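Handout, page 2. Input:
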Amino acid sequence: MLRIIETQTPESESFIAKLNERGRLMDETILKTVRRTLNEVQSEGDKAVARYTRKLDAPRISVKELKVQQSEFKQAYAEVDPDFIEAIAHAKKNIESFHQKQMRTSWFSTEADGVLLGHIIRPLKRVGVCVPSVSQLLVSSLLMVVIPGVVAGVEEIAVCMGPMRNRKINPHMLVAAAECGVNEIYKCGGAQAVAAMAYGTETIPPVDKIVGPGNLYVQFAKREVFGHVDIDKIAGPSEILVIADSTADPDYVAADLISQAEHSPECSAILVTPSRGFAEQVKAAIEVQAQALPRQNELIKAFENYGAAFVVEDITEAIAFANQIAPEHVELHIENPLDWIGEIRNAGAILVGPYSPEAVGDYIAGPNHILPTGTAARYASPLSVHDFLKKTSLISYTKTALEKVTPDVVKLAEVEGLEGHAAAMKIRFEDE
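Output:
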């Protein structure tokens, strides 16, 4: 199930090229469908949203049922067990605590001659959230997307997620949203949800920004509406890269690789180790553990498509390999892992030691699990409070301060051929 590859070989280069292609999302058939959906929702509003929702999720849903009612929240609480609510509360507390540390306030600076400069930092007014809830029930992603917005102070958070065939939203999703303070939820997913939030319909008011994970239809739709609204990022399939030496536990490593592979056949699960013998142990452990898991089809295909164990010379080469791949998650199962953290430049999240599995980061540790994928960790960051804030520059000059800089501004403006800019400076001092 897990192929073993020596680095610096044609097979290695071919596999790395295949991995890099995962970040280049392009499918003309999907794009054509998404553009048609966006156009229909923009022109027809609720009617188109309901039509697509009937086609893809709930065959009998009506326009009047698109918005979740308070009675549905009450019913949802009756359908989930207390242990689930307790787990949500635990995760929520940790996620809130972590993201509160990211908050920044407006600042102002007084310069020479009475000049005042600064940044005014405000939360966005209205944000739309897309979260998978049918093919995959991503309660954790709902928390990770909504809580930073709440911490940032966003006034209105609207959540769109696909309904089940019975026209209801999964009760676990409704309860999770309610526990985060969100009660504006709409029964639609996919590209039609992105379109509804971007352009607005009779039922769904437009938003300023759309955030959240989703399939290729959602990601393509977000890319298409960017500019009309802001988006967080284009998120691809999940990724994990485990760096391990002979001191690691092969069963732990195998379990962590499986935890990502089970998401979908497009996920990548990579082991990098100086020990071929250890790679063989992990391969055997994966085959044993996979037999006991329900999502065998997904994880087997993921390992066939994007799973591999790379054998390197040493940990230094392993770190360099990780930086080249720039994966979503990097796990360190090595001696003295803290000594190597500073060497890892390109990763969405670094999980250190045998008792920091990617799963704890996904659910309850606190840092956001909406991370850059497809080599985007070279330049991008995890979702954070900053994604829900905007900054406005403040500039206040006195007459004395402006007079001193006028010659330089005039010179620069004239070089650029913008005489109006120069004139706007000179006119203030013509009488002197």
